[in-house]
Amino acid sequence: MHEPDDTSEDHRDLRRAVADFALHEVAPHAARWDADHHIPAEVVTALGDLGVFALGGPEEFGGLGDLTALCIAIEEIGRQDQSLGITVEAAVGLGIAPIARFGTREQQERWLPDLMAGRALAAFGLTEAGAGSDAGATRTRAELVDGTWVVDGTKQFITNSGHELSRLVTVTARTGTREDGRAEISTLLVPTGTPGLLVEPGYDKLGWHASDTHPLVLDGVRVPEANLLGERGRGLTQFLSILDDGRIAIAALALGCVRACRDLAVEHARQRTTFGARIGDRQGIAFPLADLDVMARTSHLLVYSAAALRDRGAPAAEVARAAAIAKLQVTEHAVAATRVATQVFGGYGFMEEYPVARFYRDAKVLEIGEGTSEVQRMVLARGLGLLSR
Ligand SMILES: Cc1cc2nc3c(=O)[nH]c(=O)nc-3n(C[C@H](O)[C@H](O)[C@H](O)COP(=O)(O)OP(=O)(O)OC[C@H]3O[C@@H](n4cnc5c(N)ncnc54)[C@H](O)[C@@H]3O)c2cc1C
Questions:
Q1: I need a surface site. Which of 53, 81, 91, 191 has the fewest CB within 10 A?
Q2: Structural domains of the chain ordered from first start
């Protein structure tokens, strides 16, 4: 079922093209990719050929710089496969965006063409064992020795860091101490295959099985001084400034989940009969599905109003508020929607051969990655002048 769409004709064409690709090239394989814990490189490059990785990228490198378009693509992919959806979201939001926003011309020329064509994936390594929501607690260190950064530390839960298309990990590291005594954190580009960068085996996750997530060890990794991304000491500020786009894009992924759950559950409720009537003719089933319809509509409005604010260059504080509201509300809707959908499917909803079971496992992490629900509430409360201590 389609949401009434007030985006442009170009956006509607894009939605049709990506939805068609996802229906024919993604949906038939999603369960197998989930079981294999792997997304084939061919589907990533096929999405590259469709232009998906370029949607959010800079225009001078053939991109559209259009967050609304990126959200449409992620939503449509996410309706069929959340793992592929997060692969795209992380590739653009965490891989391409920092280089596009803060890279030197040389860094951009080296990395963006392959990343924006889907020929390569880049990851962002911020999280550590003791630094997740509290990213300022980063322990990874980088020292400049004779024109070379020497990096030591570990990173946790890094998406797209160990896929056969992974070519680069952008990492945050302490590069000194600021005048106020707090850690100076900077960002460095570390190409995969650099000696000392160890990509540990992938995690055994509850969901997003096919998405590529690894712990990383940086043991005396040496990269040239020119691999500093953006300004020294601005690593966290830079990361936070790209995170709003990422939060809107995660909300788009969650919207795909809400729509899929509504559509699958409504279809099942129309077909399944018990006690001589369709289950969808009982209020106990019909009303929660009406609620899913409300969630799909409100989620759509939250995602695309936030993306529109960002695309028309609204003030950063307005975008940050809209992004936090969309991320918080739509990801919580997604978790609720999977619970309703599996219940409507009864025992079949617990079986892996039905996609609602996969959506149920995949949804939880939406409330955690790129800022937990609590972190979104912190952002919003601070915007209200609260939580000042
Ligand atoms: C599948 C997956 C993929 C990921 N991909 C990446 C990636 O590519 N790159 C990357 O850098 N990171 C990645 N992450 C990490 C993710 O961003 C963090 O897990 C997330 O930010 C939470 O950090 P944490 O796990 O350390 O939890 P913690 O920060 O330890 O939080 C634990 C709980 O406490 C709550 N909490 C923490 N502080 C407060 C507070 N002040 N007030 C109220 N509640 C609070 C949190 O909301 C949470 O509920 C990924 C995580 C997962 C699971």
A1: 191
A2: 9-121 (1.10.540.10), 123-231 (2.40.110.10), 236-383 (1.20.140.10)
